[in-house]
């Protein structure tokens, strides 16, 4: 088992091991991969949320992710809560490489949330909602997006039900009609190209 000195900060809610706070947020190195040799903690810089000064730009480019069935079993920032999903992790990397102005998550329970908002585990999906409740969810998310981003173009990786929240908005859905595996393959190709050519790259599907 990989051993590392205790780090100052909060206590992991899962195993009660020490976790690091301050400028960075990390996974707990004690309970990640329990029973196997674990790697040193991966440090993820936490950027300040950019939900202000939208008047400085004519159009904001906003990446749209959706919540996932796979979740961490403990409270965590949203980007950590859902990142066990391969599609979520790839789409997040793709949006970051494109250097979008903002990235948000559509949550079946919490509606529109930012990457760094703390979320507790929950078991709720749009697939389980009946039609009227799903329409109400989409209408509320749509209202929240219009308030937060008066002038925005949305680039979505979400599925058909989550994209109901983007009706009557300026939306680019480059993976429309693709299945789960196809989306992952498309994202990997785009990520490779963006790493090679930079954020100005406009590949097939844009």
Task: Write a structural description.
With 206 residues, the chain is of the alpha/beta class. It is built from 4 helices and 9 strands. The radius of gyration is 18 Å and the shape is globular. A hairpin with a 3-residue loop joins strand 5 and strand 6 (111-114). It has helices at 78-81, 86-97, 131-148, 180-197, and strands spanning 24-25, 44-45, 60-66, 76-77, 102-107, 111-114, 118-119, 152-156, 170-172. Strands 6-5-3-8-9 form a 5-stranded mixed beta sheet. Helix 2 packs parallel to helix 4.
Number of DSSP-assigned strands: 9
Radius of gyration: 18 Å
How far do the termini sit from each other?
A: 45 Å
- Secondary-structure element order, as H and E? EEEEHHEEEHEEH
Uncertain parts: 1-11, 18-27, 29-55
Q: Which class best fits the helix and strand makeup?
A: alpha/beta
Q: What is the tally of helical segments?
A: 4
Major beta sheet, strand line-up: 6-5-3-8-9
* Overall pLDDT confidence: 78
- Helix share of residues? 25-40%
Major pleated sheet:
5 strands, mixed
Give the amount of beta strand, in percent: 15-25%
How would you describe the shape? globular
